[in-house]
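In this supplementary section we document a worked example of the pipeline. Step one takes a protein sequence of length 98 as its only input; no multiple sequence alignment statistics are reported here. Step two produces a three-dimensional model, which step three serialises into structure tokens for compact storage. The input and output of this example are shown verbatim.
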Amino acid sequence: LLNRAAQQALFPDNTYAVDSGGDPIKIPELTFKDFTNFHSKYYTPSNAKIFFYGDDDPLERLNFLDSYLSELPASVSVSTDTKVAMQPLSIITPRYEQ
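The serialised model returned by step three reads:
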């Protein structure tokens, strides 16, 4: 509970405020349609960041990646702004139910 309250207090305006696995109290309310809609919106190649390391040929890596990703359906990209803005200082009431 302390970790959750700290996350919510430190990051009230962005995704770091919420439990990445979902609030256990709210999960039973999640419908399969809600789940698949969320997944199809956020878990797409257009919303991925892919990093390479090593001393192999970068062009070979990119060709391999293209051969895999080009077969996947195109999707509308979500925001690519990954900056975490300064958060307001505030005392909050926890968002979870007790």
